C-alpha cells in the first residue's frame, strides 16, 4: 500500500462524534486533509514520523479540515470519523499512521526503522478513517 492521496474537496467531518480544535494558528502553509501536530509554540505544523517526537504528534495531532497559511487559524479534527474521500480509498480495517512525508497518511508498511509510530485511525469505509484509536505510541519501528 502507498500513502493515501487526499483530494482537498472531499475532506469532511462526519457523524456526531467528530471532535475539533479551533483555538490555534498555523505555523506554515497547510492544505485540507494533511496530518498536523501542535508544536511547542502552540501552532499547527505538518506532521511527520521521521522527525522528533513532537513532530510525530506527542503533544496533539489530527487532520487539517481546510487550507490555511502561516498566522491564520486552522480547524483540526482530532476525533470521530474523518472523511478523506473516495479518491484516497482507505482500505477498510487497515491501520493508518502519520507518514514520513510532511502531512502524509501512511499504512504501516510504508514506515521504516526508527520512524515513530503514531496511529491516526482505522480504515472505516472506502472513503473514511475512524479516529477512535488515535494515539501517539512513543514507539519507534524496530
Task: Explain how this protein is built.
The protein is mainly β. It has no helices and 10 strands. The chain has strands at 12-26, 35-38, 43-46, 61-64, 73-83, 95-98, 105-107, 116-125, 128-130, 135-140. Strands 1-3-2-4-5 form a 5-stranded mixed β-barrel. Strand 2 and strand 3 (43-46) form a beta hairpin. It is globular, with a radius of gyration of 13 Å. The two termini are 19 Å apart. The model has no long low-confidence stretch (mean pLDDT 93).
DSSP E strands, number: 10
Mean pLDDT: 93
> What is the CA-atom radius of gyration, in angstroms?
13 Å
State the helix count: 0
Features of the shown structure:
142 residues; five-stranded mixed β-barrel; mainly beta
Write a short abstract of this structure:
With 142 residues, the protein is mostly beta strands. 0% of the residues lie in helices and 45% in strands.
Would you spell out the secondary-structure blueprint of this structure?
Elements: E1 12-26, E2 35-38, E3 43-46, E4 61-64, E5 73-83, E6 95-98, E7 105-107, E8 116-125, E9 128-130, E10 135-140
Parallel strand pairs: 1-3
Antiparallel strand pairs: 1-5, 2-3, 2-4, 4-5, 5-9, 6-7, 6-8, 8-9, 8-10
Amino acid at each position: 500500500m502507498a500513502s493515501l492521496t487526499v483530494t482537498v474537496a472531499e475532506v469532511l467531518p462526519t457523524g456526531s462524534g467528530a471532535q475539533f480544535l479551533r483555538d490555534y494558528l498555523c505555523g506554515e502553509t497547510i492544505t485540507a486533509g494533511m496530518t498536523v501536530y501542535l508544536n511547542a509554540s502552540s501552532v499547527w505544523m505538518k506532521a511527520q514520523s521521521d522527525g522528533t517526537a513532537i513532530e510525530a504528534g506527542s503533544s496533539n495531532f489530527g487532520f487539517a479540515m481546510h487550507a490555511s497559511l502561516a498566522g491564520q487559524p486552522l480547524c483540526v479534527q482530532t476525533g470521530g470519523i474523518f472523511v478523506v474521500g473516495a479518491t484516497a480509498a482507505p482500505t477498510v480495517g487497515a491501520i493508518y499512521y502519520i507518514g514520513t512525508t510532511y502531512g502524509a497518511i501512511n499504512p504501516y508498511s510504508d514506515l521504516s526503522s526508527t520512524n515513530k509510530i503514531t496511529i491516526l485511525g482505522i480504515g472505516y469505509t472506502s472513503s473514511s478513517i475512524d479516529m477512535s484509536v488515535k494515539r501517539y505510541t512513543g514507539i519507534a519501528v524496530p
